[in-house]
Predict the structure.
Amino acid sequence: MSYVEENGKFNVKKWNRENVHLEEEVLKEEYIEIMDGLDEGLALIKDAWRDWAIGAETKKSMLKPAKKELLNYVTKWLNKNIK
């Protein structure tokens, strides 16, 4: 497999995808297990997603970009509000 593109540039992203195998970090949950209401809050997000996803106006093609948007929104919110 060649990682050099037609323009002669080395495709680092393609090389990383196929050659860098990072070990998944093990989540011990030793801190979050005692945070009251965390699972309930996450369940509210999941329920809101499900309700939107099965809505009459929602098309299958909308799911992938909407998921990306939701994850981005939640990540930004958490980064802003959890210090």
In short: DSSP finds three helices and no strands in the chain. Residues 12-81 form one domain. The longest helix spans residues 60-81. The chain has one domain: 12-81.
